[in-house]
Design brief:
One of its GO terms (molecular function) is hydrolase activity. The protein is of the alpha/beta class. The chain contains ten helices and eight strands.
Length: 267
């Protein structure tokens, strides 16, 4: 367990293993615990760095406006704090959004990018987008974190044999600081870097669950805008793929990372 300071905020991160650095960045309202099924497997080959985003987990939760650019700046500060060279980046949901921001702003910092169940913009384009957002916005403001956690658990892990995962998510969600959660949620709305995707030159893997919130077709559309990207769809999975399909996820990610490392060694 380690901390570093950036712009007056103490940020928590964990480190495991040795080798090429690999950054794992969690989703909205979550923490380093998103990656519990990945860390042991990845740390056998990589120097795995797992931060808590500002406002989340064990990091400080300053009462201020948050922004995706600000979250990205925190991660860049962490990379500098640890003297990391080019780094593999894996981001789930909001972690993927932060990854897109970092990759378009400072592409030279990333050795590869893996985006999991995420997108390069959160823009309201269709009436259904507004409805989805209004629903989420009201839910976040009117319900307590515990109630949201239970609803989320049922949505993410609907199967009878996933009771443990449902329970886990409900307990973790209840620990969220509501103010920080809402500030992070607000940071997502209206954000986008889709028009700058051509700046991302590193190899990119987009992983999509077949039952994610946004359809696979939406990922197919933006993958075409990335210079060196491919899409892998994971069957029988929802938004929390690293938790509901850990073996498939880990295998897919390791194959990608190994291919990137082999290619860069050959050059």
């Amino acid at each position: 367990m380690a901390y570093f300071e950036h712009e007056g905020c103490n940020l928590h991160y964990e480190e495991y293993g040795h080798g090429t650095p690999l950054l794992l960045v969690h989703g909205l309202g979550s923490s380093t615990l998103d990656w519990e099924m990945q860390i042991p497997v990845l740390a056998a080959r990589y120097r795995v760095i797992v931060p808590d985003v500002r406002g989340h987990g064990r990091s400080d939760k300053p009462r201020e406006r948050y922004s995706i650019a600000g979250f990205s700046a925190d991660l860049i500060a962490l990379m500098e704090h640890l003297n990391l060279g080019p780094t593999h980046y894996v981001g789930l949901s909001m972690g993927g959004i932060i990854g897109f921001q970092l990759a378009v702003d400072q592409p030279q910092r990333l050795k590869s990018l893996c985006i999991v169940n995420s997108q390069p913009q959160v823009k309201m384009q269709k009436p259904s987008d507004y409805w989805w957002l209004a629903k989420r916005w009201c839910m976040a403001r009117l319900l307590n974190m515990e109630t949201i956690g239970k609803a989320l658990g049922r949505m993410l892990f609907p199967k009878p044999d996933q009771a443990d995962l449902r329970q886990k998510i409900a307990e973790r969600w209840a620990k969220n600081d509501k103010h920080a959660y809402l500030a992070s949620f607000d940071a997502l709305v209206g954000w986008g870097v889709q028009e700058r995707l051509s700046r991302i030159t590193c190899p990119t893997l987009v992983i999509s669950a077949d039952h994610d919130y946004t359809p696979v077709s939406a990922k197919e559309d933006y993958v075409k805008l990335l210079p060196d990207a491919r899409l892998v769809v994971i069957a029988d999975s929802r938004h929390a793929t690293p938790l509901d399909q850990p073996e498939r996820f880990n295998q897919t990610l390791l194959e990608f990372l190994t291919a990137v490392d082999t290619t860069t060694q050959d050059h």
